[in-house]
Amino acid sequence: MKIGIDQIGFATSNYVLKLDHLAEERGIDPNKLSKGLLMKEISIAPLTEDIVTLGATAAEQILTVEDKQVIDMVIVATESSIDQSKAASVFIHGLLGIQPFARSFEMKEACYAGTAALDYAKLHIKQYPESKVLVIASDIAKYGIEAPGEPTQGAGAIAMLISQNPRILEFNDDNVAQTRDIMDFWRPNYSTTPYVNGVYSTQQYLDCLETTWKEYQKRHGLALADFAAVCFHLPYPKLALKGLNKIMDQSLSQEEQRKLQENFDKSILYSQKVGNIYTGSLFLGLLSLLENSENLKAGDKIALFSYGSGAVAEIFSANLVEGYEKQLTTHRLEQLNQRQELTVATYEELFFAEAQLDENGSAVFSGYDDQVYALVQIDQHQRKYIKVEKPS
Ligand code: CAA
């Protein structure tokens, strides 16, 4: 049975910070961000936009009324959870109006959990071929003002509908995972921002890539030449470029190497404008590749490298389905260019705002008219979401 990604949707916030402005304000050379990290812009989410609203918005783009009657599992992968107990997927299940006899839960292992969610979805569909699973990877990456990771922050969600006979990508059963108990990046329950051993995290990312890739090749007898493209987890694109260079097979022809590089360049286009969206970053790279590459064709095999600090890494592959391009959009970059630009001062205010709860644990929010879904209030510690009515 063929199982894979039938549809992919993406949502980000409506605000953007240009990194040239951030560099100027922080007194650093803009080339450090544009060339050193390969970053251009980052999406900034206000209080009314969180992993639930972003996830629901991404899913809304791809689901039909029929899908909502068939989906029997909703998984949200996140590392910026809004509740220690209730899963974001339960809110999203309700907002989207998915039929009630479904499982909804959250998965966590830093940026890796989206891949674990796909693995679980695949197993579920193997057992129940008629079912469909909604996998959402949704995160707001916040490092803090003047933190080394500040230019790599971001906000966004990827929604993937997983089914048999998918129309975009068919998974191959070739996953190879690796776990290492390390402290490269973590966020204790009492902290709103992560603790990061930055340089160490980059070394671990690259070493996990190299060792997992070696094991993957050994187990499956595959070489880089078998792949049309490699997608990487994208904490910032420059690290992934180092990853590509690390696994590049020098015995490939110049033409083959050029093609892999060209597809890599297409895979980072969205992340360069959105920033790190943690669990969704790998799949934002995949979407960027599929929507912008000019040399992919049905049957091409794409490798995916997932990395979550802590750390878990996984490499797997999927093949493009005939007609995949009909399921995608071509105006994503234009849409990103329509986000409202923020000054550095407004970004600091908006991104790091905390809800000011009264003595009953309540607060009412405003300014969400341009969102699709919004957090409109916290009422006695309960988050209240709506689908925003648009004037007809
Ligand atoms: N012109 C061009 N390039 C310049 C430059 C200039 N004027 N000034 C500096 N650079 C280059 C540097 O040479 C460096 O390039 P190399 O990596 O090729 O050496 C690059 O810009 C970055 O500069 P620094 O090494 O000085 O590092 P930094 O202070 O900007 O911090 C970072 C980089 C540690 C990665 C920081 O962004 C960070 O902590 N990020 C968060 C952690 C992270 O993303 N880790 C990735 C692996 S963990 C993971 O993948 C999970 C996850 O999503 C978080």
From TrEMBL:
UniProtKB keywords: Transferase
InterPro entries registered for this protein in UniProt: HMG_CoA_synt_C_dom (IPR013746), HMG_CoA_synth_N (IPR013528), HMG_CoA_synthase_prok (IPR011554), Thiolase-like (IPR016039)
Hydroxymethylglutaryl-coenzyme A synthase C-terminal domain sequence ranges: 246-384
Domain of life: Bacteria
Domain Hydroxymethylglutaryl-coenzyme A synthase N-terminal: 18-164
Family: Belongs to the thiolase-like superfamily. HMG-CoA synthase family.
Protein name (database record): Hydroxymethylglutaryl-CoA synthase
Organism: Streptococcus cristatus AS 1.3089
